[in-house]
Amino acid sequence: MARNIQSVERAAAMLRLLAGGDRRLGLSDIASALGLAKATAHGILRTLQNEGFVEQDPESGRYQLGAELLRLGTSYLDIHELRARALVWTDDLARSGGEAVYVGVLHQQGVLVVHHVFRPDDSRQVLEVGAMQPLHSTALGKVLAACDPVAHSELVEAKREPFTARTVTDLDELEQVLGDIRDRGYATDLEENWEGVAAVAAPIFDRHRLAVGAVGITGAVERVCLDGAVRPELIAAVRDCARSVSRDLGSGRF
Amino acid sequence: MTDAHTAGPFIAAIDQGTTSSRCIIFDRDGRIVAVDQKEHEQIFPKPGWVEHDAAEIWTNVQEVVAGAMVKAKVAKEDILSIGITNQRETTMLWDRHTGQPVHNAIVWQDTRTDTLCRELGGEVGQDRFRRETGLPLAAYFAGPKIAWLLDNVPGLRERAETGDLLFGTMDSWVIWNLTGGPRGGVHVTDVTNASRTLLMNLDDLKWNEDIAAEMGVPMRILPEIRSSSEVYGEVRGGALGGLLGGVPVASALGDQQAALFGQTCFGAGEAKSTYGTGTFQLMNTGEKLIHSESGLLTTVGYRIGDADPVYALEGSIAVTGALVQWMRDQMGLISTAAEIETLASSVEDNGGAYFVPAFSGLFAPYWRSDARGVIAGLTRYVTKAHIARAVLEATAWQTREITDAMIKDSGVELAALKVDGGMTSNNLLMQFLSDVLDAPVVRPMVAETTCLGAAYAAGLAVGFWDSTEDLRANWRRAAEWTPAMEPEAREREYRNWLKAVDRTMGWIEEDQQ
């Protein structure tokens, strides 16, 4: 069996010591309870404090469990919260881009559409909230697979159906595509899921820089593309929108 | 988000609201170019009393206008006109020589004039001035608030009689200050704001001298009543003089009427509902002045220049978003308002539970102050998720009741309901709303319909837009929900809702009221 890492064990012991009710302990108490030198204990405590797992009371100098720890396990972004935060920005994206906007999150082995803004013309359109899209052949799916490790592993395991002649199903080829997406910060889909339809999507990050969703526009390839590539102003608009929603979710500037 | 495609000229709209003042700059397509916003203090001197410092509000208005112009990187040459929308009914008096408010503004929610309204009603009761003004005698409206100030603040009545004081709702205060204040500011209000004073005749849109005399309000303090869309004057002097001097001030609309205008509900039978803590629904009834048989208010929708006025029926629901907040803050069943949808979506239906949030009685169409909230139909089967569902359904059923009353009064079927406000991000609610109304529910692409309405009216006045048809062309559908409920299910659920409503009544006994 591999040797355990001592400092992680010590950190775990500290958290256990502070757990349970409203417990606050000073540095010397913690050090002596765990049989550690004060300097060692202090180093670990400071690291835990930086991660938000431990907080220090400014008056007494004593340590207690941090808010971050309480959030672990219960913290996931509610999809309806995501929609509420995205509403203003996605309206504006639809308006400036002239195309339908979708916000998606990873759900099982695909993308669940949690928000949809109509294309801003007077045509009859049906709300697609609740619909599923594949991970490997849509811009939303690919950008999630590129930025979220869980989505990536789902993509690897999922059956990758060829929907059009342009769908990429080969895993090695897909990995390359995902690498490019990671580098560029956005994904495109040029008739890979539906004939005649193109899309571009960018990731939405939360305050931990985790990709919690994706936002993108989808429309007729004739409008969305120019000379076989997505129009640069649409890419810029989608990325602006993704950044704005991320900022609303507490993600720092990037 | 600003973007490079947006080019001037622009219209600026000021929204002087209950909790904050905002300025939004719009382009020709009705798109937002820049926003600035500042909150002001809510003053609670006694239980039931709510006041604002009007001087603070005017300072904030100047700041947000300047702020929005900086953010939009525009100069006054790019701004063709300025429009105003405002919290309705909030009442203030100021000295016409110094420009200083003589008392805090009394906010619409303030209930200090309850007793006065009962006294004014006399033997006839709260409908005493309804025929003339379209309103019941209730504490919201401005007229009795003026009377309270004149009768309770020492010296004010004398100063009013000698002509030193001016009365205004927030539109009047902002316009007077924008156009020069003590140095030649114009003292006007628009028909929509005047229609919330209990002092204006709905048919000829003039102050009613008899009612004013009855309330003890001297005619000389009242502003001139003008249309909602015309040039009242130009920006002059003050901090904004340099920034916007010479720009026409060209619209005023009460906030709910502005939303009706921003939603481009220009045809009779078109209706909008704004879903916030409470909900305000207005239906355009065209040039027809309809006296409600169902307890709705009759109000002026808008008037464009010299055109005939357009009337509206208004129904308000006291508790909609507030019920979701109650689930979050008082019950602790959810941690954010958006989570109500997650919880409600975890079950297929309400499990037989119905929630009537008659927290302070039932409003239109019942008007029962003896009612209190009820959760009906409880069994061992019901979970918190079913209650969450019942919470959302309550908003939809209350909308249905208001809508039914509007259809009954106007004789016009509802073709579609245009919605705005925070709760429109709740997909489950919007679908259920469409289901119970048996009509499409449509959300427009610009959520800021209140400011947009003021901008539209100000732009029409200076020819930036030619007609209301021009404005309709700007309207964009962002989402639409269509009914998907079986008629039998709808009828059964509505019957159950009505049974639950019935159980709220008579809870408060006479001597407790």
Properties at a glance:
heterodimer; A: 254 residues; alpha+beta; Arc Repressor Mutant, subunit A; Beta-Lactamase; 6-stranded antiparallel β-sheet; two-stranded antiparallel sheet; 10 strands; elongated; B: 513 residues; alpha/beta; 7-stranded mixed β-sheet; 6-stranded mixed β-sheet; disordered N terminus
Structure commentary:
The complex is a heterodimer of chains A (254) and B (513). Chain A is an alpha+beta fold. Chain A folds into 2 domains: 6-65, Winged helix-like DNA-binding domain superfamily/Winged helix DNA-binding domain (Arc Repressor Mutant, subunit A); 71-248, GAF domain (Beta-Lactamase, 2-Layer Sandwich), CATH 3.30.450.40. Chain A contains 10 helices and 10 strands. A 6-stranded antiparallel sheet of chain A has the order 5-4-3-8-7-6. In chain A, strands 1-2 form a two-stranded antiparallel ribbon. Chain A has a two-stranded antiparallel ribbon with strand order 9-10. In chain A, strand 1 and strand 2 (63-65) form a beta hairpin. The longest helix of chain A has 19 residues, at 79-97. The two termini of chain A are 42 Å apart. The model of chain A has no long low-confidence stretch (mean pLDDT 89). Chain B contains 17 helices and 21 strands. With 513 residues, chain B is of the alpha/beta class. Chain B has helices at 54-72, 114-121, 130-133, 142-152, 156-161, 170-178, 191-194, 209-215, 238-244, 255-262, 321-329, 339-345, 384-410, 427-437, 449-461, 468-474, 487-502, and strands at 10-16, 20-26, 32-39, 51-52, 79-86, 92-95, 105-106, 165-168, 188-190, 224-226, 229-234, 248-254, 271-275, 279-286, 297-302, 310-317, 354-356, 374-376, 417-420, 441-444, 477-481. In chain B, strands 15-16-14-13-19-20-21 form a 7-stranded mixed sheet. Chain B has a 6-stranded mixed sheet with strand order 3-2-1-5-12-11, with helices on both faces. Classes of the chains: A alpha+beta (254), B alpha/beta (513). Chain A binds chain B through residues 78-81, 83-84, 87-89, 91-96, 116-118, 120, 122, 125, 127, 129, 237, 240-241, 244, and chain B through 1, 3, 5, 29, 31-32, 336-342, 422, 424-427, 445-447, 476-481.
